[in-house]
From TrEMBL:
<feature type="transmembrane region" description="Helical">
    <location>
        <begin position="245"/>
        <end position="270"/>
    </location>
</feature>
<feature type="transmembrane region" description="Helical">
    <location>
        <begin position="133"/>
        <end position="153"/>
    </location>
</feature>
<dbReference type="InterPro" id="IPR038078">
    <property type="entry name" value="PhoU-like_sf"/>
</dbReference>
<feature type="transmembrane region" description="Helical">
    <location>
        <begin position="6"/>
        <end position="26"/>
    </location>
</feature>
<feature type="transmembrane region" description="Helical">
    <location>
        <begin position="212"/>
        <end position="233"/>
    </location>
</feature>
<dbReference type="Pfam" id="PF02690">
    <property type="entry name" value="Na_Pi_cotrans"/>
</dbReference>
<protein>
    <submittedName>
        <fullName>Na/Pi cotransporter family protein</fullName>
    </submittedName>
</protein>
<dbReference type="GO" id="GO:0044341">
    <property type="term" value="P:sodium-dependent phosphate transport"/>
</dbReference>
<dbReference type="GO" id="GO:0005436">
    <property type="term" value="F:sodium:phosphate symporter activity"/>
</dbReference>
<keyword id="KW-0812">Transmembrane</keyword>
<keyword id="KW-0472">Membrane</keyword>
<dbReference type="GO" id="GO:0005886">
    <property type="term" value="C:plasma membrane"/>
</dbReference>
<feature type="transmembrane region" description="Helical">
    <location>
        <begin position="173"/>
        <end position="191"/>
    </location>
</feature>
<dbReference type="InterPro" id="IPR003841">
    <property type="entry name" value="Na/Pi_transpt"/>
</dbReference>
<feature type="transmembrane region" description="Helical">
    <location>
        <begin position="47"/>
        <end position="72"/>
    </location>
</feature>
<keyword id="KW-1133">Transmembrane helix</keyword>
<dbReference type="InterPro" id="IPR004633">
    <property type="entry name" value="NaPi_cotrn-rel/YqeW-like"/>
</dbReference>
Amino acid sequence: MYLEIIFNVLGGLGIFLYGMDHMSSGMQKLAGRKLKKFLAALTTNRVVAILVGIVITMLVQSSSVSTIMTIGFVNASLLTLKQALGVIFGANIGTTVTGWILALNVGKYGLPIVGAGAIAHMFLKSDKAKTRALTVMGLGMIFLGLELMSNGLKPVRTMPEFVRMFAMFSANSYFGVIKVAAIGALITAVVQSSSATLGITITLAVQGLIDYRTAVALVLGENVGTTITAILATLNANVNAKRAAYAHTIINLIGVVWVTALFPFFLKFLSYVSDPEKNMTVAIATAHTTFNVANVLLFTPFIGYLSDFLCRFVKDDGKINNRVTKIDRLMLQNSNIVVEQTRVEILTMGKMIQNMFDEISVAYKNSLELTDEKVKEMSKIEEEIDLYQKEITDANFYILNNKDINESLRIDIRNNLLTSDEYETVSDYLMRITNSLKKLHDKEIPLTEQELNVILKLHDKTNLFFRKIDAGFQNRNSARIKESLIIGKEITSLYKSAKESSIDFGTRADATTLSTTNYTDIINFYRRVSDHLINVIEGYADRNGKLRIE
């Protein structure tokens, strides 16, 4: 008998957790475009930040994921502490949707839902349809797991030893409420899933093993226990990220303190909204939502004060962030966010490359007057672009190895990797052009008017080629990127003409090995820049299912 109970409860819990994971990951994939707009929606307006937190948590079905993601933005300096607090408040409300999903109480339909989802997943072809099927299957597994746990615990109601054990955890006094809330917090901290402990709480209450008061007290503690995930995630994060994680704990802890102090009145208020005698699951879900909504309403006016308090008492640890991008390791839990932030970082690389083009233009107009300081500045830009490319590559290869990402996202990741890699190489060649011009300047060897005209034409045309491709990338317009190929062909024609004329330049009376070599190097470097920009075009054509461009 005992073994059967253990098998049913353990199996049901495992299926429940697995289903929750499937549904959460499926929801994240289906909500990809909405998640990409996350950064754009962030604002100093605390109400909007709270709404963003609610929506994102409802979409991903995990307050831990949305909270850690938010803390990742703080760690990357994309969010201020005040903005993050608003999103965390919203996440606390958004997570209560899980309770209402459980309140649907369709456990007996869990198995057919799982079956329908699995069969659909086998026969459907598109990635999006398969993801929908997995999400439905996850939902069915949640209901099936709860049903197995509930059936497994039914015999326990008639076992005196279990009844006595559960009677020890009763919220029949103030200290009893505190004790039960602490147990809820401890179990959730160990499991690191408030959804799991909420499911167990509902199962125990439905089977009559714990009363409604005890279930509510457990739910209160679960809200504190779930904050441990965020704290663990910030062990190596910067001080602002730690402040955000501590704020999450403080908000929920103080919420539990004031509700437990007014516990009889809280239960009295809940009795006007729902009746546990009619539907225990709905009553528990109502308590969960009411607590979090009330807590957010109470704390919202004090976001600024809480932020100031944390800044004052959680001192700066002196850690220096050596990263150049704002792609934080805590973002890696959500591939869509990494892909979108990568695009932002590549656009920053594009601005830096355009700056290099502009500086070289100035050098041509000023008769190659390149100071050592200016060359150092250009070298610093090129080195920084190298770091951008490395950090982008590390993050995107990490999520590319995730087998759960769909083909559309995989194409976006590969295009981002290709573009960042080619941009980095373009910056290398622009630096080589700068060094060649510096050699001519230091040796006081001017380019002839004819040579300068040829190089200027190559420079301007190559710069235009880059700007067209960068604009297409910025606007997510792959067609515009491909259309710019005609400029690449013009550069090839200019290069061939310059190469032929370089033979004539080398026979002039004042020609030297240095002047001829550097002139040839410069036109070759522009050709190489063009080649790498063409690689971007071909990559986009090939990876979007089109023929490669000849």
